[in-house]
Structures are given as structure tokens and as C-alpha cells.
Amino acid sequence: MEKINPKLYGLPARTVLLKDDHDNFVLLIDRKSQIIMKDANAILDKADKIRTAVPDATITLETTAPVCSKSTKFLSDNGIEIIQK
Questions:
Q1: Quick check: 33 and 65 in contact, CB under 8 A?
Q2: Which of 13, 29, 36, 59 is deepest in the core (most CB within 10 A)?
Q3: pLDDT tens, 39-50?
Q4: Can you give the pTM of this predicted structure?
């Protein structure tokens, strides 16, 4: 996995975005506060921007923060896998 410039996909500069050779993208969120629905909506917006540029992209959220159950269901329903470290 290599870190890539999020601006290439129209994302904010502070977004940490990783990509491998097979159009698999990882949004990395390193924080302590819980990921709630407001955050999940922002994550989905970022994923949609990536999917606009790369239609076959697989998107994964990798985070150290706890994710609320509503957000977990919302993201998985929209094709975003969650990996908690």
C-alpha cells in the first residue's frame, strides 16, 4: 500500500488515502473519538468521489476509533468494509 495524494480524487488535503496496485483504496482515520453517523456520511461522500474517478474501486475504512453500530451498518450497506485496529 502506498500513500497517495487525496487531491487527485477531489478529496480534502487532510484525508489519509492509501492505494494498492488493484484499485483497492483505504481511508485511514486515526483518532480516539467515536465515528458517528455524521462522520459516516462524510466517509461515504469521499468514497463516492473515489468511485466517480475509479468506477471499479474497492474502498475500506481503517480506523483506531470505535464505530457506532448505525454507522457500521450504513457503511457496510454502501459497500465500505471497516477494519478496526
A1: yes
A2: 59
A3: 999 999 999 999
A4: 0.93
